[in-house]
Amino acid sequence: MYTYSVIFVLCFYVSYGQVLVFNQCPDLPVQRNFDVEKFMGNWYERNVYTAGSGGDRCNLDTFRSTDCGSFNLNMTDAGDWLVSGRARPIGAEAAKLVVDYFVGANAELPYWILETDYNSYAVAWSCLQSPAATLRYAWVLTRNRNSEEALQRGLSVFEKLSIDTSYLKEVDQNNCSN
Description:
The protein has helices spanning 2-15, 36-39, 148-160; strands spanning 19-21, 41-49, 59-65, 71-77, 80-89, 96-102, 106-116, 121-129, 134-142, 168-170. It is α+β, with helices and mostly antiparallel strands. It has a single domain, classed as Lipocalin, CATH 2.40.128. β7 and β8 form a beta hairpin. It starts with a helix and ends in an 8-residue tail after the last strand.
């Protein structure tokens, strides 16, 4: 059963364009004193860490509180549903989350908030370790669909943490209906 779960998670990650890297997941610092309630609401994906195509137009991530200490995450692309999940903190650092994605079979994946000011930008990171490699995904999120200043603040986090930006792909947020 474990083997099937690993295969499913790897297929899920690769199908959504994550980057395969042949080394360990880095231990990155996350947002200190992360406030989940301030983070709730709509976030536009401005750049995504991707090795493929797809999901590159009008991406919107919506975070909604639940009454059980977790929150729901819905990701859409040009108004179409992509994936949903329920996130909850793991461990002592509230910005280190795990998301149970509902994609036919539950897939539990990390979702870390590296930095946010809650009002304009956020940087999220995911890294899944396998015996031979890691699958990495990253997002630069902004509250305003086309804020260049917020985008630059998010991108600066990658530079500050020495994260390779060569896989970052810009998401087209023009003429969107969602």
